[in-house]
Design a protein that fits this description.
This protein is α+β, with helices and mostly antiparallel strands. 48% of the residues lie in helices and 24% in strands. The strands form 2 sheets. The chain has a 3-stranded antiparallel beta sheet. The protein is globular.
Length: 207
């Protein structure tokens, strides 16, 4: 028969093993339900132009935020961006206050990071609609998400000029499905329509 000391040792080993397995399972569950690892792009309009960020998610956490070259006023935007990036990584959230004196740049950076984080959260299965203003008026899309991926994008209603918008209606939905993101290039010659489709898809998947 096993001695009391041996039984205690075995029990301790089993307990440690159970704790390790539980920790791994919990970690996997948190990863599945939280932010998905990867590098995600976010864009927003700043004071001098578009502000584009690359947000790195590792282990379900925001580990880096890189701001691409921009046209914001350097001596104003530089310190603000540095401060906001540090706060976002520290708090693990883009929900931070704008830096006084650099409101436009701050709001653009916050909006861009929010967009990137929304992408990292993944998509829930379902059929969603979104609307944005096009060249001729409101444009509405229907986005189908299946198995956590964008499966289909359809333009439901629009008042765009047919012969101009046709290419955008064809190429943009295909590009969004292929990239699994609304962060795609506009179609030359149909900029307004392209931006409306992109904005409508974003609205469908984030609101």
């Amino acid at each position: 028969m096993l001695s009391m000391q041996t039984r205690r040792s075995i029990s301790l080993v089993l307990l440690i093993a159970l704790l390790v397995v539980t920790g791994v399972v919990w970690s996997m569950g948190a990863q599945e339900e939280g932010l998905k690892d990867g590098v995600y792009v976010g864009r927003a309009q700043g004071f001098g132009g578009e502000v584009v960020v690359d947000v790195t998610i590792s282990g379900g956490r925001i580990t880096a935020i890189a701001v691409r070259p921009h046209d914001e006023t350097p001596f104003i935007a530089g310190p603000a961006i540095e401060t906001l990036v540090a706060k976002m990584i520290e708090t693990q959230s883009p929900e931070v206050e704008a830096v006084s004196g650099a409101t436009y740049t701050s709001n653009a950076l916050i909006a861009a990071v929010k967009q990137a984080v929304r992408k990292a959260e993944g998509f829930k299965d379902g059929v969603y609609t979104g609307t944005a203003e096009g060249f001729g008026g409101p444009l509405t899309v229907e986005v189908t998400v299946a198995n956590g991926a964008i499966a289909k994008v359809v333009v439901l209603e629009n008042s765009e000029t047919p012969f101009i918008a046709e290419e955008a209606f064809k190429k943009l939905p295909e590009a969004i499905v292929a990239n699994q993101s609304w962060d795609v290039d506009v179609v030359s010659g149909a900029t307004y329509t392209s931006k409306a489709i992109i904005a409508a898809v974003e609205a469908a998947l984030t609101e």
